[in-house]
Amino acid sequence: MADASQGKLIEFKGASLAVMTAYVRETDAVRLADAMHMMMGGMPDFFAGEPVVLDFSQLASVPDWVDWTAITSLLRRYQVQPIGVRHLPEHLHEGARRANLASLGKEGPSSERPIAKPQPPAPAPAPQPEPVAAPAPAPEAAPTVETPSAASGTTAPTLIVERPLRSGQQIYAKGGDLVLLAGMSPGSEIIADGSIHVYGPLRGRALAGARGDTSARIFSTNFGPELVSIAGVYRTFERGIPQTVAGRTAQVRLTGSDSQHTLEIIALQND
Amino acid sequence: MTRVIVITSGKGGVGKTTTSASISSGLALRGFKTAVIDFDVGLRNLDLIMGCERRVVYDLVNVINGEANLSQALIKDKHCENLFILPASQTRDKDALTEEGVEKVLKDLSHMGFEYVVCDSPAGIERGAVMALTFADEAIVVSNPEVSSVRDSDRILGILQSKSRRAIEGREPVKEHLLITRYAPKRVEEGEMLSYKDVQELLRVPLIGVIPESDDVLQASNQGTPAIHLKDSDVATAYQDVVARFLDEDRPLRFVSYEKPGILKRLFGGK
Hints:
The complex is a heterodimer of chains A (271) and B (271).
Chain A: E1 20-23, H1 29-40, E2 50-55, H2 68-77, E3 80-86, H3 93-98, E4 102-103, E5 159-161, E6 170-173, E7 178-180, E8 189-192, E9 196-202, E10 205-208, E11 218-223, E12 227-230, E13 233-236, E14 250-255, E15 262-267
Parallel strand pairs in A: 1-2, 2-3, 3-4, 5-7, 6-8, 7-9, 8-10, 9-11, 10-12
Antiparallel strand pairs in A: 11-14, 12-13, 14-15
Chain B: E1 3-8, H1 16-29, E2 34-38, H2 46-49, H3 60-64, H4 70-73, E3 75-76, E4 83-86, H5 99-111, E5 116-120, H6 127-134, E6 138-143, H7 147-163, H8 165-168, E7 175-183, H9 185-189, H10 196-203, E8 207-212, H11 215-223, H12 234-246, H13 263-268
Parallel strand pairs in B: 1-5, 1-6, 2-4, 2-5, 6-7, 7-8
Antiparallel strand pairs in B: 3-4
Helix pairs in contact in B: 1-12
C-alpha cells in the first residue's frame, strides 16, 4: 500500500462515511441552548468531537435569517463538530456557507419524513472502549481479530471471539454483531452496535444496540450477567438472576413503544 | 528446549511461592535440570521457603544489571541435585526488571542446559507479575476456592492472553493449568467454600491438581523445606501428583472428598 501511494502527497477519493445527523427543529439559538442543556444535563463532554450533519427537514417554521455563529459555537461547546447542512431552505444557504458549513443536499424541507424517528443518543457505555485489534499488543485486549468494518451503519461483519473473555477485558463490536464462542467471566464487558450472542456463560456486562438500535438482542446459552443493556435501557441483577432464566438459554430484547421501552428477559427452552 | 513455567495468581497469599518451590523441586527430583526464579523484587520469599536465604550473595537484579554473572548468582538447592535458585533482590524495586534483561537471563539459562525454568510471580498485576509471565510457555494459575481469588486468577489469565510473548507474536498460546490450593473438603461439604468443580467451571482452565489445606505447609515454610519433601503428608503427595500430571502422567484427583472421621479416630484423636 505504501508503494502504491508513493509520490502522491494528497489523493482524493470518494468515500461514504457514517455520520451522525442532528435534526434541528428550531433555529433560535437561545431555545436550542436550553434544549441542549436539558438533554445533556451536566455532561458538556458527552460527545467527543464527532462530526455531525445538521438536518433541517423537520423545521417547525422557516425563519428569515439564522444566527449560524451562535448555533455552531453552541454545538462546539458540547464537543460536536458541525460539518454541513441538509434540507436547508434555499435562502439560508448563503449564511451557512459563510459559517463554513458544507451544503449536502440543496433542496428544502423534504416531503418524505426520515424513516426512523430521531434517536436520542443512547447513553454511551462509558468509557467507550477502543476497538479490539489483533495481533497488536493492545493492553489487555483479548486476542481477537476485528474484521474491517464496512462503511455503512449496521452491515459491519460479525465479530467472533473464540477464547473466553476474562475479567477486566472489554470487546466492542463496532457497527455489527458480536459472537462469543467460549463465554465470558464476571468483570468483563462486551458491547455491540448490533446483537450479542454468547455460547457459554454470560457473566459480565453485555450492552447491545450501543448506538441506539432498539431491535438488537442479547442471547446466551448460560444466562447470568451482571448487567444487560439494549439501546441504553439497562438492568442490573442485584437481587440475583430470575429463577426462570438463571443458567438457562435465554434472550433479552426490548418491547414496548418508542417512549416506553422495557427490557424483557425470557428463557428460550425448557431445559 | 527449555520450557518456561510461570506460577501466578493475581491475588497474594494463595500459595504461589509454596507451589513454585514444590513444583521446581518435583521436576528436579524427576531428573530434569531446573531453575526457579523469584520475580518478587523487593520482597524476596522464595529463598526462605527453599531454605537458602543465608547463601544469597547475588540476585536477579545483579544479573540483569551485569553486576554478576548467572553462575555466580544461581544457588544450588540443598535437597535436589538438579535444582538451582535465582533469588530476588530485596533492596531494589520492580522497575529494575527490564524485558531485555529478563529475556537475556532466560536465554542464558537455556544455553546452560536447563530443561525447566520456573518463574515465581509476585502478587498483583504490576510490572513484576507481567515480567514473570512475559516469556512463559506454560502457566500454572494458583487459586484458592474463594470468590475474590478466582476473580483475580481470571484477571491474570486475561493478562496472560494479551501480554505474553506468545500472544503478542501470535504463536501458540501459553498452555494454562489451574491449581487449587488450600482446599478443605469439609468446608466444601458444609457449603462454606467453593468446590473445585465450581472453581474450574468459573475459570474454564484444565485442572492440574488440588492441594489440601494443611498445617504442614506452614511447618515446611518455617523449616525452609519445600512441602513436596515432607514425609507422610497429603500436601507432599498432592504436589507429586501435580508434577506427574504436568509431565502428562495420568493421576486421579485425591484429597477432594470429605470422609467423616470414624468412631475410633474420634476417640483416639488424630488430625
